[in-house]
Amino acid sequence: MEKLIEDIGLLSGNESEVTEPFKVSADENTGKTRKLYIESYGCQMNFSDSEIVASILQKEGFDTTSRIEDADLVFLNTCSIREKAEKTVRDRLHHIRGFKKKKPEMIVGVLGCMAERLKTQLLEEEKIVDLVAGPDAYRDLPTLIARVDDGDKAVNTFLSREETYGDVTPVRLNSNGVTAFISIMRGCDNMCSFCVVPFTRGRERSRDPKSIIAEAKDLFEKGFREVTLLGQNVDSYKWSEAENNKARLEKNQIEEVITFAHLLEMVALVNLDLRVRFSTSHPKDITDEVLRTIARHENICNYIHLPAQSGNSRILELMNRGYTREWYLQRVDKIREILGEECGISSDMITGFCSETEEEHKDTLTLMNIVKYDYAYMFFYSERPGTLAAKKLADDISPDVKSRRLAEIIKKQRELSYERNLLYVGKVFKVLIEGNSKRSDDDLQGRNTANKVIIFPKENKSKGEYVNVLVESCTGGTLIGRIV
Ligand code: SAH
Ligand code: SF4
Ligand code: F3S
Fold it and tell me: Could you say which of 37, 260, 289, 327 is the most buried, measured as most Cβ atoms within 10 Å of its Cβ?
């Protein structure tokens, strides 16, 4: 079933979530003495964090490598979202043991959400691990590495209320040179009952907009043409000098609160040729002001990842999501009203949550039918230790039923993805070219504003350019066309 989930991710052609099992650092040789190999699992936030880690360590004399055998330092930046995610990392550590046997001085570190969740327990359970660092401890990595160099094990899983790494310029790993992520906030203050993120990432905090704009400008100057603003709940982005910088308040600065809508606008104004995307929007928090801001700026993309999780209000309440089915559908109506039929909408869905009945599962299918998602990421419920659901609700849907329900929603989404793709056939779209098509070097691929992947013959164009493409046909996953 897990294979199916990855299939649908690929089928959807959506890059707003991870479809590959992991991403590895690229080779970068600037003559440094030691080499870092870093693998990232989980969400875009984690990939973005790996770029911060690479930046911090570059200053300490580390180049990155794509080969474990060449590395002095092997880092796994891990995810705890489902049991399967943790199992993958444990298998990977097992595999790395072989490399360490051949090169005993190699340092093995576990970073990210699994490090935060398990802390020193990881050192006890996985003997190969020398270093454990949580998501807010990356500035401490040089000290932790020095401790391991001295023969000790090193752990820092302190969660901060302030850390945003705002001043760290990420080293772009696996970059296509056209699209990049910018973290605008960290942590999460929602307490969705199934979710481990508030425990692994700590309290929500927003990054200084000045550093976000500076990063966007820098990327544009380096040739990037699209940025994706990242946060677990971007709609609760909030910055005021008074709250975030007490020293300035004392100088009686004019108090101004910057919301996500303001921030979007500020990034959009960096350059009209810089596309702006964002993820994730929360159905309880997304405002009309955000939708109108998207409508006002051509370069803010018409695509919203709006995870529903379930189509049934009782289940949504048990999930502690803070909205009902009706509220969710009203938000979708508003998106259609302000941004039109062609605005891309995607979702995450969980099947087989605690006590979900057949009827309630059917509500998820009917919700999908009404919204007509362009893509969806679908999972069966995986109980996570320490979460509200693990403490209060029984994980009482059998694996067989969870899998069958998951297969049903995947089938439904396949039909919807195809149906939605047909809507775009015969129309012309502005496409940002991201590189060669995965299938053929004679073709290019890029996306339109609604995040649809479009493949077309190269002609004399290359990545980073905008072209107008007429869509002539489609599959469930991609649109196929030609430059006009
Ligand atoms: N902040 C985002 C989600 C981050 S986690 C949001 O609020 O939508 C990404 C997705 O993983 C979630 O949307 C959810 O669908 C899924 N997920 C989270 N915890 C899960 C669990 N315990 N079991 C199965 N799927 C889970
Ligand atoms: Fe998890 Fe909910 Fe926060 Fe998303 S909003 S990260 S699902 S707690
Ligand atoms: Fe992301 Fe996984 Fe952590 S989804 S926030 S890496 S638990």
Answer: 260
